[in-house]
Amino acid sequence: MPSSIIAKYSPDLVFGENIPVAITDSKLRIIWHNKKFRENFTGIRLKGKDLVSLLSSFGIDKEIDSVYTKPTYRHIHQINKVLHIVPLFDKNKKKTPDNYKIELTEPTSELLEKTSLSFSKPNDLDFRSVLQDILTLLVKENSIDRLSEEVLSKSIFLTKSDLGIITFINENSTREFKYFDQRKIIINKPEVEKVVNSDYKFISKWLILNKSSLIAANQKNNLGSNLANSIGCDNLIISPCIFENKLIATLIVGKKKNSFSNDEIQLLEQFAILLTFVITNISTRNLNTALENRLLQTQKLETIGKLSSGMAHDFGNLLSSIFGSVNLLRKRVDQSDNVQKLIDNIENCSVRARDLTKRLLSFGKPTPKRKELVKPHQILNEINKIVTQTFPRTITLTEEIDEHLYDIIGNGTEIYQVLLNLCVNAKEAFNEKGNIKISAKNISIDENNIAFLPILKIGNYVKFSVKDNGAGIEEQHLTKIFDPYFSTKSKDAGSGLGLYVSYGIIKAHNGIIDVTSKPGAGTTFDVYIPAFEPPKEKQPEPGEKIILLADDEPMLGDLLAELLETNGYSVIKVSSGKEALTVLLEEIKVDLAIIDYNMPGMSGLETIVEIRKLNLDLPIILSSGSMWASHESELTQYKINGQLNKPYEFESMLATIRKFI
Q1: Cβ-Cβ contacts under 8 Å for 412 (sequence gap 6 or more)
Q2: Fewer C-beta within 10 Å: the chain N or C terminus?
Q3: Which of residues 536 and 143 earns the better pLDDT score?
């Protein structure tokens, strides 16, 4: 320290070694400092630095811009130090100081009592401590309820408020409330929630527009005054929690008598930001967990699908034999009604087993959609049996079905699934008794009536309707009724996927599904599916075409050969790809080849590749019990003309064969 300063101010320069000390001139420019003082301001050249600008980053420059003639204390919250300004007087000049001694001391209770700012500003260190505690809790805790309670209680404590409320805004615009009211100031919570719900539209618009806190005083004509009055506070602060320009919650604190300072309002807005982070963090975490669980479930399904496909392949071969035997049995036994009923039962059970096999094959993996000729009356008869046999006796079923309905091209099982799902939904719309009405009729859309059904294209349709006289659906729910995971049922009663899947099925059939409903007046679902008239098939002349059949299952091969022969074809049977090539190399005229996909030694695809090397242009149909899912490019690559899936549907198989020969 310069000797001149010691000599000039020695009576006033008494300080401890561990106390940060500096000396400034009369304009508060630093002319000397010790090492301890520098530790508080690392990286800054202090000599010649104006003390006001040095401390401006702490927001207290306006508090030290005057001349001090007495020792003065200022509490600097950001570094938790007390700034002690001591005027230094020249021995000959006693009125005004010409230098100052600056000390930074620890904030003891005695010193804090002397600081003029210690109670006028919120303690930033307190908020930092709360922030650290809540962020630490956020790592361990996954409950928004627990963390929001912590945010609410701490915001009330630090702003010296009497009570607090958090309102959470859900996806469906409903609100949930969390209270912190240890003094029991709120008398009627239902009334408070009623006021919040009624005033929410206006308050939320104000909060989103201004993106700042709303000061709601308990005075008439003030926005939020109704809420302040219902809570029983003179002043409320409503701070918004906004994420992606959307209000997700509000943090409300109130004082029964006193008003809020600007610092308290700013502090509350910091808590609102913290609450926003907590809500979005936990929501994102829960979403990620749900997605991980769904991915794990998908992987499990895929594994099960692979295991079941192998079993279903062999099962499909057995079913093909049963179907073939039933077909031959009809032609060889007595045509008595009793015998035919038994054969019908065998065939119906086999059809159900076939559908089950196909579901096993497609379980856990996508499969191409198979379309077939669908007879609406057959589906409706099946629906009638299920409803009358399994639905409660208190529910009556009525039908209004045209006698001659158009045929449909599509997947009969999927259409059956849609109509059954609509019936099940109708059943669940009743508490006890009720009526379900199923109707079906042909409709034609042309230029004269398309204005009444603009969602349809011109053409012929089959219209299915399922109507109930149950509770009905609220108007605001009708626009979401086909959304995935949306359900008006309880969480345990429905997944919200039934109508979503039904919508997708009907859309894939180039159709439309529509709903009309009113609360208390029941619900009607209308399904429109385009009609189809199949072209007349050309019948082959007996014995004129030769088919090469390659299949390693002897029983299935013999049965299929006999069925083809009974329909006028000559059949050459082989059990391997090598034998198929031998037949073709002997220059035997073959009009079409049916090659099994899974054969020992040379596979079906390898056999087809070798056949094409012989420059033979005969049509080739690939048959498979494992539902080989090919794309158009793969069919072209291997020069495959068509596909057949086991178990064979013989009418469909014959139609495929007749397309090529």
Answers
A1: 372, 374, 378, 379
A2: N
A3: 143
